[in-house]
From TrEMBL:
InterPro entries in alphabetical order: AB_hydrolase_fold, DUF915_hydro-like
GO molecular function: hydrolase activity
Tree of life domain: Bacteria
Classification via Pfam families: DUF915
Keywords annotated in UniProt: Hydrolase
Provenance organism: Limosilactobacillus reuteri (Lactobacillus reuteri)
Protein name listed in UniProt: Alpha/beta hydrolase
Length: 281
C-alpha cells in the first residue's frame, strides 16, 4: 500500500509540474499575434555613432505593440568590451528582442566594434545557448556588423546570422567626413566609383559573406540622393561587398520627411517593413 501511495504521489507530482510548465509556456505566448512566425531566434539591434539603445526603442516598442514579441532585454557593452545583459529571456520566449548599447559610442575603430559584436553574441550564447540570430543595424552600427563578419564569417562556433537589415549604412563613408567626393555606384554591381580606406578593408567579404543570410538594405532619399548624412551611393555600395553571395538581397528606398537619417528608425513605414522581413509568415 505504501509503494502504491508513493507511486500515485509521483504520478500526481509529474502531472502537476507538467500543468504548471504549460501555464508558464502559455504566458510567454500570450498576447502574441498569430500573423507572425513564432521563433526562439533573437533579433539584435545596433545603433549608430553618438547614439545608444534609446535610438532603438521606437522600433522595439512598435514590435511589442504589434504582437511580435513580449521579451526585450538590453546588452550593454562597456568600453573594454565587457557585456552586461540587462533583463531576462524566458525559456522558449517568442522572437526575443535585444537592444545593444555601446557605451563608447564615439569610437570609429571598426575592428574593435566588430569584436564588441562578437562579445555580445558570445554572451547571449553562453547564457541562452542560441545558435541563430537576426541583426538590424543603423548608420555606423552597420560597420560594426560588417567588420564582425569580416573577422568571423567562417566561425561556425558562433550563433549564425539568418537575417540582416542594413539601415542607412555608412559603408563607403558619410557626407562631410569620409565619403569620397562625387560618389556614384554601378547600378548592376553596386561597385562604387571610389572606395575609402574602411571600405577597402571590407573587400575580402566579397569572398566570405555568409551564404545563408537574407539581407535587406534600407536607405532614405530626401529627393537629392541622400538622407542628409549619408548618400544613397554609400548605402548602395553594400551590394558590391556581398558579391551575390547572400541567400537573398533586396533594397528599399524610403522617401518623405521621415526618410531623414536619424528618423529612419522612428518611421512607421520602416517598422512595417522590418516586421514583415523578420517575422512575416
Amino acid at each position: 500500500m505504501t509503494k502504491f501511495i508513493k507511486f500515485t504521489l509521483t504520478i500526481f507530482t509529474a502531472l502537476f509540474l507538467t500543468f504548471i510548465y504549460g501555464l508558464a509556456a502559455n504566458s510567454i505566448h500570450a498576447d502574441l499575434s498569430n500573423k507572425y512566425i513564432h521563433s526562439t531566434t533573437p533579433t539584435l539591434f545596433f545603433h549608430g555613432y553618438g547614439s545608444g539603445a534609446h535610438a532603438e526603442e521606437y522600433m522595439v516598442n512598435g514590435f511589442v505593440e504589434a504582437g511580435v514579441s513580449k521579451t526585450v532585454i538590453t546588452a550593454d557593452v562597456a568600453g573594454d568590451g565587457t557585456v552586461t545583459l540587462k533583463g531576462d529571456i524566458p525559456h522558449n520566449a517568442v522572437n526575443p528582442l535585444v537592444m545593444v548599447n555601446f557605451n563608447d559610442n564615439h569610437s570609429t575603430n571598426y575592428e574593435l566594434q566588430g569584436q564588441w559584436v562578437k562579445n555580445v553574441l558570445e554572451e547571449l550564447q553562453a547564457k541562452y545557448h542560441f545558435k541563430k540570430v537576426n541583426i538590424e543595424a543603423h548608420s555606423m552600427g552597420n560597420m560594426a556588423v560588417m567588420y564582425f563578419l569580416l573577422a568571423n564569417a567562417g566561425n561556425h562556433n558562433l550563433p549564425q546570422i539568418q537575417k540582416q537589415v542594413a539601415m542607412a549604412g555608412t559603408f563607403d563613408g558619410a557626407i562631410g567626413w569620409n565619403e569620397p567626393a562625387n560618389l556614384t555606384v554601378n547600378k548592376k554591381t553596386g561597385k562604387p566609383s571610389a572606395m575609402n580606406d574602411s571600405y577597402q578593408k571590407l573587400l575580402p567579404l566579397r569572398h566570405r559573406y555568409p551564404r545563408q543570410i537574407k539581407l535587406l538594405n534600407i536607405y532614405g532619399d530626401l529627393k537629392d540622393g541622400n538622407d542628409s548624412q549619408v548618400s544613397n551611393a554609400s548605402c548602395l555600395s553594400l551590394k558590391y561587398l556581398i558579391n551575390n553571395r547572400a541567400r537573398s538581397y533586396r533594397e528599399v528606398k524610403i522617401t518623405g520627411p521621415n526618410a531623414k537619417h536619424e528618423l529612419l528608425h522612428h518611421n512607421p513605414q520602416v517598422n512595417k517593413i522590418l516586421i514583415n522581413f523578420f517575422w512575416g509568415k
